[in-house]
Amino acid sequence: MIVKYNLIKTEKNTKARLGKIETNYGTFDTPMFMPVGTRGTVKSLNPEEVKACHSGIVLANTYHLWLRPGEDIVDLCGGLHKFMNYDGPILTDSGGYQVFSLAKNKKDITEEGVNFKSHIDGKKLLLTPEKSIEIQNKLDSDIAMSFDECPPASATHEYLENSVKRTLRWAERGKKVHNNPRQALFGIVQGGPYEDLRKYSAIETVKMNFDGYSIGGVANDGESKEDMYKAIDYSVPYLPEDKLRYLMGVGEPVDILEGVERGVDIFDCVLPTRIARHGQAFTRDGKINLNNAKYKTDLDPIEKDCDCYCCKNYTRAYIRHLISVGETLGGRLLSIHNIRFLIRLTEEIREAIEKDSFLEYKKEFLDRYEKR
Question: Does the pTM of the predicted model rise above 0.90?
Fold first, then answer.
């Protein structure tokens, strides 16, 4: 079985959707936040800890797994689920975001694919739509992503128009070679902050009848919140109601709320584990930085009403101590809390959608979270 989406209801005051994802590893509710396991692991956490956060789908990175250990090794080990020892659904990205960040100039992007140098040893490599899908087929994830161009936020309308058309051609090429019957394949809508390009990209991508759809190009460096929300607004109306909608690379609480309000179902981001490694934690009252001296004698948990392992067992003072002396346990505990925080956020969002009170929930959450 490939991944299937069932729309349960749309909130009466917004486009927020309550749904269920059916997979070979169970059925999961949406909206959902997906933890990121770039190299086949959610950084510093074991699968049991990730599952204890009530995770559903986790994301792994095609580019990094292609370079090390290689898709053939993962295939030999029985695919990503066995390789990672994760008994839940897995989504793999196309590798495009990393590749485009490594391409030195526009000449490296050709109709064939993207030429770049490995960040490991400088070896010259070429990633094509066909190669990206071939790698993901062997990784045997539950959801694979089409290979798309990831243009910078500063790209002009003229550049983005050509980029969108190239992405559509690449999507078609990738779909033709996709041959894993257990794996869903998602198309990606691009077009920057331009309404005409988003509409065109969405309509043409939907014509290819993918198993789900992603809104890409919304988490680039230099992009404004306004442009991100425009990209969603300009894409969602042309996406089918009976398939998943995925906003790529987004994990700030406010952006999850804004995305859900606009009709998005699933989100992913490295943010919760990245900020944890720097001593930062999400709380209902905004982010806190455990490096600050005021937490040295703070005997409270990170958040009193949080049900995660970190908050049930450790104080801010202890975690600050770990962070200040460079003990990796500090980052691990904060990673557990931050992932659980975002998953709890989506759990509460689902309850609000069920009660048709999403806007009230959003206002109440943001009034407290942003008061700092």
Answer: yes
